[in-house]
Fold each of these.
Amino acid sequence: MKKIITTIICSLGMIVCFAQQEAQYTQFIYNKLAFNPGYAGSYDAACLTGIYRNQWIGLEGAPKTMGLSFDMPLLNKRVGVGMNINRNTIGITDQWTIDGIYSYRIALGRGTLGLGVQASIRYFGLDYNDSRLQATQAINTDGGIPTGEQNKYLPNFGAGFYYSTQKVYFGVSVPRILNNNIDFNNLSGNEEGTEVTHAFGMVGVMIPLTSKVKLQPQALFKYAANSPFDMDFNASLIFDNKYTAGLTYRVGGSTDRAGESIDILASAHVTPNVLFGLSYDITLSDLKDYNSGSIEAVLRYCFGSSEGEDIINPRFF
């Protein structure tokens, strides 16, 4: 019975994955380039960020995500360039994405507006030879069930804007606009599976409480066609511009639950140029009885300011 229940949940998880196809990050505050190309070049230095996420620990076939991003300002900070490399696996699905990003940056009021575009190529593969797949009869007896490995390469493009000052930021983006066909079992000639357009909105403010403590509330809004509206709301305290501790509430899950998860976050500037962060998600949805939560780790290294100097005051936007 336990195996049957787990199989049903994994199947539902695959349905959710196809509806919400972009990778999910709890520490979006340190990984904005994955959501918005307008962010490229927003920091005063070239930065390299790595992130790893293990979602729904203990549930076989649950999503795992690895990402690496790089961006830097150029031409006296009027231009930003960047790149994302991302791998997301769930069940027998393996998805790789590479983004090339360009942002033109305009001084506006007390801040800077970045207008970004990106081009991407995505590898989308399914492995029906996976040893975890089991059946009561030989798969080849049913011609409607695919066999072997199947894959596609899908080009796409997107755009977004990102505005920030020392005290506030906000942005809107659509990283992938094209609805590519991802159907591998197109026996009837009709497309039954496509990439879904995702839109993201983000906003945050910095509120000084004392000379050493700041409050940083922020939110990430997520929308995918034919899926419920989703949101992550985070409130963090920053101590001495070095240490951050916060909580995130993620809307979602079934209608009779209090949301998708409550997330605990902590990070530290180990040096002025190195940031390390950890988070743990406590599942609130119907899956809470079948997993031990989700963990995520992020490591960011910034090479120095664009003028070649060390970073003295780390920025949080």
Note: The domain at 2-187+194-305 is CATH 2.40.160.40 (Porin).
Amino acid sequence: MSLGFGFALLALGALSTACTSERESSPVSKPKATETLASTQPMNLVMIGLDTLRADHVGLYGYERPTTPNLDRFAEASVVFERAYSQASSTRPSHQSMFQSRPPSAAAANYLALAEVLLENGFRTAAFTGGGNISSRLGFARGFERYEERDTGLAGTLPMAAAWLREHRDERFFLFLHTYDIHLPYDPPEPYASMFSENYEGVVTGPKTRSLLRRVRELDGFEGKSFDLETNDRERVVALYDGGIRYADNQLAHLFRLAEELDLYRDTVFVFFSDHGEEFWDHGTTIHSHSLYQEQLHVPLILRTPKRDSKRIADRVPLMDLSPTLLELLALPVPSAFEGESLVGLIDGSDTGDRIAIAEQRALKSWFEYPWKFIRSTDTGRVELYDLEKDPLEQNNVADTHPDIAITLSDRLNARLAEGSGDAVPELEPGIVDPEHLERLRALGYIE
């Protein structure tokens, strides 16, 4: 794509202690049939964020490896959105956009968020998270009566969440669970570290993965210095990532058993989602936050509610539509500040059709109106256009051969983002100085 054409487009318009066991848990039993719950009004909400989980590495989305046996069983009694897309390719802006139901460049720490709405409507609220890029220091604790940040993963936070659920089971509640178990540095405990690469011998081990992949990305002083891994080492990286998914899935089995014990399926909405995916050389490099391609935006979205039967929805939907959906399911009004549109019509069958999705990361802006995917850089003016029906892996930029479509989508993107169309969406919140917070971000691979 020529730089001149890009600038021309710009001018046109932006539980219990058992959770700590490293042994494989027994499979979770299938939840009770939703027919027995159809007359019950959902009262409570449990959201589980599996950070950095790309949809095509999940069994129920067609992955060949057995990474998610427990989540797959849970999904049998759930609504599965097959094509949900995040609005950013990193943790902080994606969560802000999802909880505030706004585009990332229009979301900020002081905007109304889902937890605040629920607290104001009488919910008891608690979150047990991995902190880091969703730290309370970044405003994510607003609306939560209790906001815990631990670097222990689900093995450490699930027992605390279980105790909180037991305490508040007889009240209306909102619980948010979040984990970095799948996130870099891809260092799950055994047997998960070797589960998908049993005979590997090489340089890629959990503790070293973070520094190796940041070097592949030419970070940490390696800018402009080409470095890559051999094929078997790349396969090992993916195997460690998949092992982390299986480890997180094993922890989820404890949550599912707790839900049955406390009879939560009778009156509680459950949501599983991821904030963004991960690249494994799909476009020549690794990790996330640097592009708006499908491997970083296509995420799992699984919703189970007492009042709806299980189904799979193929329509494409943006993640920023999730918060309005949950409020409607809980029979609560949607704030006017929320810009997303409820998905309940798609769930009930009264609505059909793909939704338009936008995405933003750094200086990149994207407009997704199937089959077309438009991406623009506000830094360089570079423009990309992909026909996802013919080119689902986004390998052939056709902006030069379809300039009319590129211009039209650029204008729509500008109109949608309005005054925020030129604002960059950084991976990290500027000005972080707290030593403890910086150390947590360093451990997750965000800084060196």
Note: The first helix runs from residue 3 to 11.
Amino acid sequence: MNRIVAIMRKEFIQMRRDRMTLALIFMVPLVQLLLFGYAIQTEVKHIPTVVFDQSLSAQSRELTEAFSSSGYFDIVSSASSFDEVNHMIDSGQAQAGLIYPPDFSASLKRGDPAQVQVIVDASDSMVSNQAIAIANSIGLLKSQQILIAKLPTASMPYDIRVRPWYNPDGITAYYMVPAILGIIVTMTMVIITAIAIVRERERGTLEQLIVTPIKPYELMLGKIVPYIALGYLQITVALLVGAIFFQVPIRGSLLQLYLLTLFFITASLGLGLMISNIAQNQMQAFQMAFFVMLPSILLSGFMFPREAMPDFIYYLSGLIPLTYYLDIIRGIVLKGIGFQYLYGQVIALLIFSLLFLGISTKRFKKKVVS
């Protein structure tokens, strides 16, 4: 135990001396948290829209007002021809076009379906999917209002009442900010520990460790414990930022969150140490750590739902520790669930921790690498 404590003290002293790295460890995640929280919004609003109204009737103006008042469509211009609508969408001045035929009002008065064309720029699939869904919803809502006005006693065949749980207002920050905590821990823990052994080798201090009676597992434990404390400090700061700046609710137990986070931190540190034992220099270690980061961001469910991925990619994402931690942190923070629903994810992270730390300990050789 004394040898482990000695290595821990050495790591803390080294962290204290490298103040620039220590500052980046906190500043970069903080900037990422603020940028991701504020900038990434899956709910697209204020889509610039051009209107070509050939009907010029009260009914067309009423429907246009419904589009505008929804908050999803901003009427930026009125066109006098279809070519003008086409030009505005091609030039990027508008992302949607609302076109009324000349007989729009007459069709309504006859009781026939009144056609309205909504053109959407689908080069951005997220914007287009949102615009299409909202446009259809507005059309359905206005149709129901007209039907009820004509037949006051009529009732709709289906009464579907949707009640979203956990995030009823669909606030993107509630979904993204907890996940960013996992990204922050993965990024800092993997990269920092990935250069730990390599840095000792390059600075010539590895020889000093070789002549000591310290065992490989003691060296591994002594190096990761200070970073576990650092990881918890990062999580605490990030949770405070999420609660203060984005009003993210924490519905579950903070004690359980901190306890289960330990398994993810140790898995990330173990992965970093394994990279550190494989790499020959700090540049290699950094590149390998970055290679691990990319699939963690893209395949873990942080940005894209895993259920939408092909089967092979879906099962491949099960080899990423962040995949399981996202379930844990979103489950505790947003749903308020506990260990009884998350034990599968905890077991997976425990296996990763033991596997990575075991490989790192076995690969570490107490000899000078030429």
Note: The first helix runs from residue 2 to 17.
